[in-house]
Amino acid sequence: MTGEVLLLIFAFALVVSGLVVGIAVPILPGVPMAWLGMVLFAYATHFAVITWRTLLLFLVFVIVALLIDFVAPLIGARRYHASKYGLYGAGLGVLFGMVLLGPIGILIGPAAGAVIGELAYGKEPDEAIESSKGALLGFLAGSLIKFVLILVMLGFMLSALF
User: Over the range 49-74, which residues count as b (16 or more CB within 10 Å of their CB) and which as e?
Assistant: First the structure.
């Protein structure tokens, strides 16, 4: 009984950590961390409410959320009429931003990359900035999706307790 309570506490701690740290510091794997918390919760409750099927479904959502992290800035830039150079710049900005600037680089990198790519393509600075707005909005949309997914996981766990 005590072991199960400790597992439940640790499970909730993983989910909340994934929510807070994973969203605030985007380079950390917040969504996978929350999913592991959900797995631990299911194990501690003997898969009575949260089944393997539910865990596998959420695993698919986690994989999609991880892909969205990289694709959302590109989609946003494209929505704001970025050229292929702007898209390449945004994509490279995600990678270089993470490596060179850490968590803040994930925010700045795609926007800066889109601007640099657009300027290299020959667009006017105003047009280049529009593309970078799209990259930034795409990143924010991806973060919102991750946030909502973790809240849904937390909701499943809380509803299983009551």
Answer: ebeeebbeebeebbeebeebbeebbb
The SS3 call for residue 1 is coil
Total number of residues shown for the chain? 162
d(CA 43, CA 23): 26
End-to-end, the C-alpha distance of the chain in Å comes to: 18
Q: Which of 71, 113, 122, 105 is nearest to 89 (CA)?
A: 113
Q: Convert the pLDDT of each residue in 74-128 to its tens digit.
A: 888 888 888 888 888 888 888 888 788 877 787 788 889 989 999 998 999 988 8
